[in-house]
Amino acid sequence: MPGHRDTRTLVSLLFVLCIALFAPAAWAAEGSAKQAERQATQPLNNAPFWRDVRGGENPYQTTQVRGIETNVLVQTEGQTWREIHNGPLPLYGGLLLIAMLLLIFGYYRWKGPLRVHENPTGRLIERFSDWERLVHWSAAISFVILAVSGLILMFGKYVLLPMFGYTLFSWLAIIGKNLHNFIGPLFIFCTLVMFTTYVKDNLWRAADFIWLKKAGGLLSGEHVPSGRFNAGEKVWFWFGVTLLGLVSGVTGLVLDFPNFDQGRSVMQLVNVVHAISAVLFIALAVSHIYIGTLGANGAYEAMRTGYVDETWAKEHHQTWYEEVKAGKARQRFADDVPAEIKTQVAQATKA
Ligand code: HEM
Q: Assuming Cys at both sites, which of 15, 278, 281, 287 could form a disulfide with 244, CB separation 3.0 to 4.6 Å?
């Protein structure tokens, strides 16, 4: 005869087996009962109700709260915005910036910096006035702050957060956001002043289209004459500074000042347009900054000191050089330049 203990074990095993066998069925039965009950109280899982809620325009959705869209409980476009903002925007924006950096790096490795062929004469021309340089560097510095803080806001969570962790990254993002919001209007002001200051010498001439056709001799090494600013600089001025400056500036103001009854869909659309124009602006600025630093010997000194050597002017902006020589340009030869600046310009041009 099995002992008392064996019986007990057997009964418990049987009990567990029963539970295991019947519980799911019981749960299922209970579940479908609940389901049936819910179908009675909330037919089709309330899909018609939620459709109404999403639609926003229904008699039931009222609120005492005053303001734009206060009666919209679920804003469907928000889902679309989130998918774009977390999907194609950072993906293609990131790819564009990486491609631009690789292109410039490849070109630099292939061709190196643009150099003059003849020796500098030591005779200098004032290429940029004090005012033009002040305007340039105010726009340049505020742009770089906006670009860096904007890139932190757009790519930070993919690139910096895994590296720095939440605490440090959130500090960077907060500082970046506030810098962005305050420097934005300043940059817009600087760009407007820059436009009025530089527009005269950025008007298109017939020679510019020859320059564009020959890509400025950047690939062939051929010498292509240009005015004070070549067609590449004019593309930067009109497409970058003016057009992208305008689009990213206006959309930036709409985002910066959300107190003009802008609804969520307006803010979402403006956010996407702002991000696209800003990434394009940064990609273009990268090529401008390259030419303005490593890419052309003597260019950086032109915007830092205001002066270029005669040889530099002749080889890079021949038509402008001839106008200066003929006294037809606003810029003049400068003979009273401090020796220190003369040395800097000569060294940079020869390098
Ligand atoms: C760190 C950033 C920058 C550097 C190093 C830089 C450097 C330079 C240099 C060296 C020149 C003189 C080129 C020449 O002699 O023809 C120049 C011209 C110019 N830069 Fe920049 N730049 C920077 C950022 C910017 C930004 C952000 C803007 C506009 C938003 C800008 C707008 C201009 C304009 C309008 C000119 C005159 C040429 C033209 O009108 O096309 N720069 N820059």
A: 281
The predicted structure's pLDDT at residue 61: 65
| 87-350 belongs to CATH 1.20.950.20 | yes
Question: Taken in order 164, 170, 175, 179, is the CA torsion positive or negative?
Answer: positive
Determine the distance separating the centroid of ligand 1 and the alpha carbon of 288, expressed in angstroms: 6
- Give the model's pLDDT for residue 209: 93
Q: Is the CB of 285 under 6 A from ligand 1?
A: yes
Whether 289 is in the pocket of ligand 1, judged by its Cβ within 6 Å, is yes
Ligand 1 contact, 114 CB (< 6 A): no
Q: What per-residue string of b and e applies to 256-268 under the rule 16 or more CB within 10 Å gives b?
A: eeeeeebeebebb
Q: Which residue has the tokens 């932190």?
A: 152
**Which of 135, 136, 236 to mutate to test ligand 1, by most ligand atoms within 8 A of the CB atom?**
136
**Could you read off the pLDDT of 266-310 as tens digits, one per residue?**
999 999 999 999 999 999 999 999 999 999 999 999 999 999 999
Residue 152 near residue 180 (C-beta atoms within 8 A) = no
**Lowest mean pLDDT across 28-42, 117-131, 143-157, 283-297:** 28-42
What is the spatial distance between Cα 69 and Cα 321, in angstroms, rounded to a whole number?
60
Q: Provide the 8-state DSSP code for 240.
A: I
What is the C-alpha radius of gyration for the chain, rounded to an integer number of angstroms?
Answer: 33
Residue extents of the structural domains in the chain: 2-76, 87-350
CA–CA–CA angle 19, 22, 27 (5° rounding): 100
